[in-house]
Structure formats: structure tokens, C-alpha cells
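Table S2 (text version). Query chain:
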Amino acid sequence: MITKDKFFRLLLIFFMVLCACSKSPDINNATDLDGDQIFDPSLYKPAEFLVSAAIENPSTVQKSTPVIIAVHGYSSSTFEWEEFRSYCESNNVLISLVLLGGHGRTYEDFKKSTWEDWQEPIMTEYNALRNKGYTNINFVGSSTACPLVLDLIKKGKIGENGMKHIFLVDPIVVSSDKLLTLIGVAGPMLGYMETTMTPAEEGHYYHFRPQETLQQLMDLIQITRKNLQKGYNLPAGIGMKVYKSVKDPTADAVSAVLIYKGLKNSDGSNIDIEMLDSDLHVVTRLYGRDNITQHDRDIQAHVFGDMVHLLRQ
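Corresponding C-alpha cell output:
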């Protein structure tokens, strides 16, 4: 017997299949990040994005200056943290814009990447900074970057060896898009999902999202949820703050609740969660969006200022 819930799921899958004209997307090489002409600039100009590459022999003062490893979300690029980079540079804070593995390249490169591949450049820059003697290393991640760093914390790869503060912006632990729960069934039939973006976002985000990477995303957030359900603590000496949009269309607000319940400071106290009156996903990125309000700008300014203030404590 087919229940009402199963019927609607089957109907949904049927319409999803009908909407997919081909398993191979029609990529515009001249404008799409997915193509073979546009690449994230950090790939060919690393010294303009990574502190470890920009400063060959850091001074004693530089080694103690706050440096932030800023990491973008799924299907995005270093573009996501450009505004914060400008803010940091005007406030004497060093910042590395890290490109997730498999991102910023062709659709085929993205398609074959795993979430472990996405994670690898985070550790590469972290270790490079430590090897150069930096003692005030910090992390800020948006969306999918958040479960990636939570996994590193759980595995003990980020700890008392130089990391000071971790900031999570709109972490995705539970997706707001419930269609993603069907990707394991519908994904192989769909091949990919197409997204829309503004003209200013073209070339900075993947226009097409391979079902293989969507399944990787689901695997990652499921692992993150399980770890949080079991519970674990931050290493001693590391502070964390989470900024979460209340009406986030991508990452459900319950993501912040799960982090609050499942992750504690080293002394067992609660980590700091701030819920933001916003309907944007990744509230810190306003470049390229349509219909930005003064309220959005105020929230961005607040989060930027708050993070830098906490770095100086």
C-alpha cells in the first residue's frame, strides 16, 4: 500500500525528473564558473589570497597579529568573503581567503570532489601558518565551511596549537531545502540541479550543482548531526561564536540549536549563539545580491565589528 507521504514523494521525484532535460548541463564557458575559462583567482594568484603565501618571513609583530582563515560555502568561491577582507585590512587584521577543494574550477572538477577534498585546503593553510610561527590564528566559515571545521575539531586536528577563535556564520547542519533529503533517490536520475543568480554573481558561484556533490553535502551534514547528538567539547583556549539568520532559506535555524546543545566550551559551558533578524543565507555577504536593505547592511556591519572586537580580547 502506498501511503499519502510516499505518493507525494514519488510524484515529486517524477516532476524533478521531467524538469531535468539532460544529465549534462549546458555550460556557458564565457560566463559560468562551471566552464573551462573562468577560475577562482586564488588558484593563480595565491599570494593575493593567502597570508602564508603573501608573507615569506613574518616579523615578530606579524606572528602575533590576528590572522583569520576565511572559508566559503558549498558551490561558492573566495568571493564570499571579499567584503570582510576589506574590513579586516582596514582594521589591522590579517586574512586568508581559502578556496575549498574541488571548487573554483570546472564543473567536472567539482563533480568528482568529495567533502574531504573540500576540507583539505583549510588544514593546509592552518598548518602553513603554524609552521611560520603565527600564534593568533582564527577561523570564520560560512554555511558548509562550518560543518567542515566542526569535523576537524571533533577529530582533534584543530586544537590548542595556535587557534584562538572560531566564528560560524549561518552553519548548515539541517537544510531548509527539504528536497535535499531526496537527493539519494532522485539524484542519479537528475544528474544536476540548476541555480539562478544575479549578473554580479556570475562567475563566482556554480550555476550547476552535480548530484554527486549534493550527496557529499548531505553526507557531511549527517555526520555533523550525529557528532553533535553524541556531544563533544571545544579544545581549551578556543572561543566560538555562532551567528545565525532566523529566516535562512538554505540552513534551517535549528542548526544553531543543535550546535548549542551538542557542542560545549572546554569547561562545559555553553558556546555563544546570536540569532540575527535576517532572511538571508550568509548574512555577511551582500556583494552581488539584489534588493539589499539598510537593515541588511546594519547586520553585516554588526557581525564584522563583533568578530574583530572579540579577536582583540
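Notes on Table S2: The two ends are 62 Å apart (CA to CA). The domain at 4-311 is CATH 3.40.50.1820 (Rossmann fold).
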